[in-house]
Design a protein that fits this description.
With 599 residues, the chain is of the alpha+beta class. Helix content is 15%, strand content 34%. It folds into 4 domains: 184 residues, no CATH class; 139 residues, D-amino Acid Aminotransferase, Chain A, domain 1 (2-Layer Sandwich), CATH 3.30.470; 113 residues, OB fold (Dihydrolipoamide Acetyltransferase, E2P) (Beta Barrel); 62 residues, no CATH class. Strand 7 and strand 8 form a beta hairpin. The longest helix has 19 residues.
Length: 599
């Protein structure tokens, strides 16, 4: 353990007391807290925070209060071992602290700022997610009086959804153990623990299950008009927060449960006043705007403050909000987060003025802009009602191999990248810059564990890649580049970081949906899962192609479908364009969707 427990041990005779001697090792990133009601010479509540391998401890003389005006004296005591956090029983006389101890509350905590600095300066702010104590709190050290030896602090509730006007509400409402369900008298008499089953009427609801997220289409131009909202595109991990039962489950965009990886944020969600909710957002490194993605990866590996930028509300307290217009959903979201912990941040927006917003965002060195149709419902998948614009060209690629380096201290010269096309892995070039000591130390063990003898590409690699060391292609990287060449290869690529939240099989080249198609483009391409044959064909005789018409309807679907759905329509087929011979199709053809009703 980093902090010594000598003071704790010298005060106790472990042959007489059942208190733990302190043998449990600290877990990396552990952030538990406990409160123990202690009937010693004077009744008090011992408040303990796990930090640096021990439980930092304060004796709160009148117990905690959720009333923000109540300032409860909290006397700093000796650090306790981690296994003391599970202790409940009676300390015999004449041992130090003789009396009955109840495990009154337990849970997790998240510091707001640097803990060591807060302890040194006498201002420690944090968020609790316990069974009884919830939300934002602060410990403030008092100025010592002349000759005073003990270290006096104040435990104070901060303003949020969990505050109350009942000064004694916490200590009078909760008179039994969170561990055994026993009262102080029952613990003192050695009564057996009670089964703690919540009645059906009072059982807290579980967090809602994951549901697929809406995704943005890549565009090269900002949508015009006042019916578009524009948000700053943040540089982090997409996340769906599922709230319920006083806890939160945090999912990646693909439905992976990353509650443990984003664990530092979980207590902050406890400050949101609702029974259940599904909140769409992005996890970012707190307080960082430039190089934000690298900072986020560093904090996920080494620890550090995170933020959740919330931009949509899918449901709250069992009410499905996805059919509502985006503006209505965002208004509900802003109201819901009004008293939430600052680590949960509402994503502001502007209405209209997209070109000016785009210019300002890029001038500030931010990642880009996300533009959303204000009247559109929330729909899973990629739709034209959400579009993204990137200030820099960046995409995800699959790491497929590495080229040996002749430079001392540099384990590889470059990484070989690929992306999937029609289910096959295609070579997309090399990335040789953006690597430092930290990146080499992180990547080389991952590459060595994935070594394979054969190329993972569907076609033989070009000559520039034939000296490569191949790897199993399951690592996804984010790469910044100057451009993609005509054959889809990376030009002047720079390493940006690993994307641990995305499966390799989903990585494909991303092209702006609003870019004009090449005049001679032929063959087949897909829009929203629909194969478009002969995209180069002139439909109206004025140069507008079949592919451009398909893209237009995909982008405008959210505006058109409310008027076109569930109405009788005729299908006029014009194989050679409207200038050629046309005919009405009366029956469902081969390959048509079963969703088409031909009654």
């Amino acid at each position: 353990m980093t902090r010594a427990l000598d003071d704790y041990r010298t005060k106790r005779n472990f042959d007489r007391t059942s208190e733990p001697a302190g043998t449990v090792a600290a877990l990396a990133g552990g952030r538990s807290f406990v409160v123990q009601k202690h009937a010693a010479t004077r009744l008090h509540w011992d408040f303990r925070l796990e930090w640096d391998g021990v439980l930092l401890s304060w004796a709160v003389t009148r117990g905690p209060s959720a009333d923000v005006s109540a300032k409860r004296l909290a006397v700093r005591t000796e650090d306790h071992p981690l296994d003391y956090g599970d202790f409940e029983g009676t300390i015999p006389k004449p041992e130090y602290g003789a009396g009955t101890v109840m495990l009154w509350d337990r849970g997790t905590w998240a510091p707001k700022g640097d803990v060591e600095a807060g302890l040194a300066e006498g201002m420690l702010k944090f968020v609790l997610q316990g069974e009884r104590m919830r939300g934002a709190w602060v410990l403030v050290r008092m100025k010592p009086r002349s000759g005073e030896k003990r270290e006096n602090w104040l435990l104070i509730k901060e303003h949020d959804a969990h505050e109350t006007d009942e000064t004694e509400g916490l200590v009078t409402a909760h008179l039994t153990s969170v561990k055994t369900g026993r009262s102080m008298d029952e613990i003192a008499s050695g009564a057996a623990p009670k089964a703690r089953k919540a009645s059906p009427s009072r059982r807290k609801p579980d967090p809602p299950p994951f549901r697929p997220l809406q995704l943005a289409m890549l565009h090269s131009a900002v949508p015009a008009g006042d019916n578009w909202l524009h948000e700053v595109k943040v540089d982090g991990y997409r996340c769906l927060a599922a709230l319920g039962g006083g806890s939160a489950r945090l999912y990646t965009r693909n439905g992976l449960d990353w509650t443990r990886q984003f664990g530092a944020l979980v207590p902050a969600f406890g400050t949101i006043a609702c029974d259940t909710a599904l909140i769409d957002g992005e996890v970012v490194a707190a307080g960082v705007e430039r190089q934000a993605f690298s900072a986020l990866q560093d904090r996920l590996m080494r620890g550090g403050p995170l933020e959740f930028v919330a931009f949509d509300l899918l449901s709250v307290d069992g009410q499905d909000l996805t059919p509502l217009p985006l503006l209505d959903r965002k208004a509900r979201l802003e109201q819901l987060l009004a008293k939430a912990d600052p680590a949960i941040r509402y994503s502001t927006h502007i209405e209209g003025h997209g070109a000016a917003a785009w210019a300002q965002v890029c001038a500030a060195g931010r990642e880009g802009l996300v533009s959303k149709l204000a009247t559109a419902p929330y729909r899973a998948g990629r739709h034209g009602s959400w579009v993204k614009l990137k200030c820099d060209k960046r995409q995800e690629f699959v790491v497929c191999g590495w080229s040996p380096s002749a430079t001392r201290g540099r384990p590889f010269a470059s990484l070989l990248m690929g992306a999937y096309e029609a289910g096959q892995l295609v070579y997309r070039g090399r990335v040789g810059s953006g690597f430092g000591e930290r990146e080499f130390a992180q990547l080389m063990p991952l590459l060595e564990r994935r070594a394979r003898k054969t190329s993972p590409f569907a076609s033989p690699p070009p000559a520039e890649a034939r000296s490569a060391r191949w790897v199993t292609p399951d690592l996804v990287a984010e790469v910044k580049f100057a451009e993609l060449t005509a054959d889809g290869h990376i030009r002047h690529g720079t390493w940006h970081g690993l994307r641990l939240d995305k499966p390799a099989g989903t990585v494909a080249l991303e092209r702006a949906e609003d870019e004009p198609m090449a005049e001679k483009q032929t063959g087949t391409f897909e829009i929203q899962g629909i194969s478009i044959t002969h995209p180069e064909r002139d439909v109206y005789g004025n140069g507008v192609t079949k592919g451009e018409v398909a893209r237009y309807y995909a982008d405008m679907a959210d505006l058109i479908l409310p008027f076109a759905k569930n109405r009788p329509l005729s299908l006029l087929r014009c194989p050679d364009g409207v200038a050629g011979q046309c005919f009405f199709q009366k029956h469902r053809g081969v390959g048509m969707s079963e969703a088409i009703d031909t009654r």
